[in-house]
Fold:
Amino acid sequence: MLQNNALLSQLKQQIRDTTPRVEGVIKATERGFGFLETDDGESYFVPPPAMKQVIHGDRVEATLKEDGDKKSVEPERLVEAGLDRFIARVQKRDGRLAVVPDHPSINNVLKARIKRSLDEDSIDDGDWVVARLVRHPLKPDDRAFFSQIDELIAKHDNPAVPWRVTLARHALEQASPEAGEEWPLADEGLEREDLTARAFFTIDGAKTRDMDDALHVETRAEGGWRLWVAIADPTAYVAENHAADREAQIRAFTVYLPGQNVTMLPEVLADDLCSLKEGETRPALACTLDVNADGSLGDYRFFAANVRSHARLVYDNVSDWLEGQGDWTPDAGIGEQLKALEALTEARSAWRTEHALVFKDRPDYVFDLDDAGNVLDVRIEGRRIANRMIEESMIAANACCADLLAAKVGHGIFNVHRAFEPEKADAALEFLADQQIEVEREALTELTRYRELKRALESRDDAWLDARLRRFQGFTSMSARPGPHFGLGLAAYATWTSPIRKYGDMVNHRLIKGVLKGEQAPAEASEALTEQLTERRKLNRMAERDVKDWLYVRYLTPAAREQRTFDAEIININRGGMRVRLTANGATAFVPAPLMHSERNKVAVDDKEGRIRIEDQERYKLGDTLRVVLTEAREETRSLVARPAD
Structure:
């Protein structure tokens, strides 16, 4: 009998060893079945019974089954769970507790228990919670899914649900840091120049409280301008390794969401003691820099100072006045400076267009909310002259900071952007060659050559080409060492102009002060810190996008109900259809392939090329503009669905 059992076990092992297997990630569908997608791009059908053993996002090993020319897989071993910590809504039915993960591709109802420190009676049906998957049917000794509720995020009827849930999803702080009562100004061994009599001014949004930059500009007799840039100085209050400094390092950035900011520093510092308020004397780190008549940068000097803003200006008022409209007028002395700064800005912009690179102007979409968080309107704010004046001033000041740190310290917190990472450069070259654009590899990897290529491509004004090429491009990252910023076309770029809002700028402030005091340069920032700064910036941007998506759905629900038509631009094409941006308000909507034609098999989507053919005729491609009808606004997935208007 034992021998027979041994033979049986051996036979089973042989069958197992000879059974073909694949590994990949589970992709669920709304209709109960799913697909297993391998790393090399293969896709295998997962039937509904097998899908009950997995969750969207699981990486599994599965057995491959073939029935004629049809292939399917049956998940057998969990490699990595798609769910670990997740956001969910509570489901209470007949005394039984469960959670439903808040994910557009997951509709599993998971049995749950409450963490011991929580009171189950305080958690109701529909409440938002942080949960954790503790059992998975593909794990040894586990027979079913089971989860644990670790934290209550918000009650189901809380008006702040979009903000609370989004911040929790990305593990971001829900509120600004707590602060002590006393914040004495430190004796840093720096002599501060008294600039309080010099007429500095700030230009910000009407509701801005954390004003971190003030300017003064003079026209030079020999031509060109001298620009004085005064930046708020939180490191004059917050010593390195102070509790507030450690917390700022963890947060890395202030989180800006529609209707709510979560500050990096305590609000008493961010919005009061450090903010360059009109009429208040503030410590500052300052720089004077010369801008030549042709827009090139000349000499610069960094120093510590005390400054006082003589005027708190607002972007739209300044732009209106410079454009000859509106009723607002500045004081005579400030008005002369604004005219000079406008001329400086045009010169700098022209110089950067010729010798560096300039981003295309894109409008900002601003949400007007009531006290309950309801969207009253979404306004388009273009990049007007006042916005450009501040932008050009900060870019010039940050270029000076990069030059100083590279020359005097050798390290700092630099923004590094390589247009094409080495592993994607060859694919980009191949793509350009397919478009009859023959360039050498150095045009993608060397800054001077890339600037020439970028200008040549922009002169073609080809939205499809621009959108397709972006797929090969990399992202900006933080680095302790100087490196090129291909997006700006600059050899190095290090920001120091937003220390209230960015921890990397606080680090650079301390390094600049060390240079001013003649101190030996400290050790460079760790790779762990630069990676954290890069990751936190990414999380902040995702949180901003997620809150906006939620608000857009609420705002556009009446439009979807009325089947309203909008102008749109195609920003992405995937196998299922295309994503468009509504030009009137900046919302994004998905247009599924089945809504493009009554017969789905007549719609051919080429997601690699970014083109869609209908009845063998090219109908849509990336970058195209079109009219779409908004058909659905789904708050449960924070998504908008549309169809072509034609």
Remarks:
- Residues 276 and 431 are 49 Å apart (CA to CA).
- The two ends are 74 Å apart (CA to CA).
- The first strand starts at residue 21 and ends at 28.
- The chain has five domains: 22-80, 85-158, 193-417+486-546, 422-474, 562-644.
